[in-house]
Records
---
Amino acid sequence: MSKYQREFISMDGKVFRADVYRVLRAFGVTCPALQHAVKKLLMPGQRGSKDKLQDLEEALLSVSEAIAMARAGLPEGGTLTGETEPEPEPEPKPKLVTWRRCVRILPAESSNLSFYDKWYPSGDIPKHWYPIEANTQPIETVKQLPEGQEP
């Protein structure tokens, strides 16, 4: 059993365990300031680093914050400044790399009409390889792929 769990006896005599979060949910406490105060008041000075007096003072500050929020007419999830929890940052999109289909042309090879094609990232095309610019041809000559992925 966790140090935060306690045994309770239900109205019909059954023994069960619950922690502060289940108690808060059972009583419908949704205001973050009140949740914080209740946690402090249920176990003042018993949760670790803070003594009883410090936990009681922090609970009092949390109740004062809940009162101020109620007077200001703020929703229970808000703050006195009207801000709510910040939205999580979206996952960054992978950086796209443009690949170009290239053909190798060497003066000695041009007489026998044998050509080789290969994909290279734009900007990293080696000497004697030339991009095929085929806007109207039926072959694909440009691809955009996530960084680290090759065609």
---
Amino acid sequence: MPPILCAATSNPGKLRDFSVAADQDGIRIHPLPGLREIPAPDENQSTFEGNARLKAEYYSRFTPDMVLADDSGLEVDALGGAPGVRSARFADDAGYQGRGTTADLRPLTTDERNNLCLLERMSGIEQRAARYRCVLALARAGKVLLTAEGVVEGEIIRAPQGSGGFGYDPLFWLPRLHRTMAEISLEEKHTLSHRGRALRALLPDLRTLLPESPLK
């Protein structure tokens, strides 16, 4: 049976990214059972690694299996590294007061609000270098066993492009591919995304924890 890791997330985009990356190496990643009923911890750390470790330690107390937790986000050089660990809450933190509906009067999603807030903050800025960063932590029984990091460099464009992905993907331009992260396939995303890179960085040490695994 392929080794199974429990992911401490219900975000379908993250689960999809992890699953595509893990499938290449014979690992199955499932959502942590009962995750929605478990009170979420306060992600109060100032770094991606701090939050990833916090979540992995916390959620691994609810299952005998190993738990994989991540903290990831966007760092924009011109904004001093923001939104950083607050990427998912960027618009709310900034008190964004822009339009609240789409052209068809549908309320904006959190991702759409965050993207509009970022574009507003980047207005008039020419230097648009940015990166996605992901830190993974693997824990069991409240103890962190492994951590790993993945980074992908890019730029922030001036209007969204593409309908795939999630988060800031429609604004995250990949110069080498001349497309945004929202315009590439899941297979391409596996080869270069911050989550795929972090998971691949974790695999060599994960093999040592799974001596009977087909990863050997």
---
Amino acid sequence: MKIVRKENPKELGTAAGKAAAQLIREAINEKGVANIILATGTSQFETLRQLLEEDIDWSKVNVFHLDEYIDLPVTHPASFRKYLKERFVAKVDSLGSITLINGEGDPEEEVKRISEIITNHPIDVAMVGIGENGHLAFNDPPANFDTEQPYLVVDLDGPCRMQQFNEGWFKNFEDVPTQAISMSIRQIMKSKHIICSVPDQRKAQAVKDCLEKDVTNLHPASILQEHSNCSIYLDNESASLLENQTFSN
């Protein structure tokens, strides 16, 4: 695990986006195609912005995403499908493919559908974040570290739902869904490379818990300590509580 510290969210996102782009290009050069995972949410704005500025042949890239709420229309501002369609798909030419999670139908059937697809697309680069409660994707504590199922239906805890409300995605806390479809911990960890972008002071405690404490499903993103090709991108605020880390530039 490598930890990169930058001054602010923009510099963090620029560095993370450039690193991800290079890994994507290497995968394309090596095997003619790249399979990637995109994260969503406010923490990914700058990383995604930089990624879109990079020279990448998107026609050779297959995209998956981490999670989606159950029973939330794609027209809702908080929909991650809407996020990706507007912030990514609409801005690239001839994308190879994108597998979006549809949480509006039968969740178990959707889990089966997307799990079958990703099983046939070994992931080269996963772009992820860390939640305020330490979650990885929507795997809230205590996260399931054991299931081999690529996607699963999960319950969202209070702190997770409060984060979504405080970020401005919902008008009321009560409007935040209580369930979602999420990529599993083990599926994320199967990625060849992981780029984790975590800006802001509100993430500082989760960063400390997940990077300096023991690996435990009570701090789900702590599992990233065990990935051999994971780079964590922090800014001064999100790194402010760390005590025992060596940073890269």
